Amino acid sequence: MGLNLERIIGPERTSNAFAELGVRPANWREGIEETEFYLETTLGMRLTTLSAYAVFGMLRSGTEEFISETITIVEDLLTDCPPDHWLEEPDREPLLPIIAMARARWNLDSGHGVVPEGLALLGGVKITRIRNMMSGGSPELPKDVTGLLSNEAARAWLETRDCFLPTITEPLETNLGPSVGERVDPIFLPVARDGSMFAPDIERGDRYQVGEKGNERHYDSFDEALAALQAMPVAKWRRPNSEGNWGIVSAVEWRRVDRKSLKPLS
After folding, report:
1. What is the pLDDT of residues 108-118, one digit of tens each?
2. In the chain, what are the domain boundaries?
């Protein structure tokens, strides 16, 4: 977007336009890299809610239309602006698996069929496994009349997957905290086998390191790093052990906590 805008109206006016959107550095490229620009946009805030729905099945009562609209908005965006035209490494961006999981979950919740790729993400398996289950004379995952995987068969298979969290609709004013009237801001965090959790205070050099060894990514923002972990088949991140040595751990579960209870960044 920025590059095309710069081609049309020039560098200075492009930087001024981004400044109006909250990007302060004079160079709009540097500004986007140094800030949480995308997270602070209207679509970025929508994606935060969509991620909670796609990965954890969190659906607030009355937000069904909001979720449906967000899925459509993102799908239209990706159709009009192919990811490889504006994302440096599309296959490593959490946006693509998140929208695929969201669409698959929405179809399941709405009684429609699902595509193999979305079901694989929800079930935490490789697409080849899903395709194997689609083959044969009596496939475990048959197609419906529309050519999509059967809703009933997909739901039955997901019930056997420990990593899949069914959609749970929560009332808008549900009180989840220990104190009467106190609102809780729920968030799911990955937990390693030793009990350590991916939390805001495990920065290393003011950045978060996530991903497999040799293919790690660094994030300035905790929320961006968490979104990347949510998109991984198995979340992996680097954290210090009791000796202060930094090593990579893998998630064995996801734990729901109150965001306000997390240790704030210094």
Report:
1. 999 999 999 99
2. 1-34, 36-158, 186-261
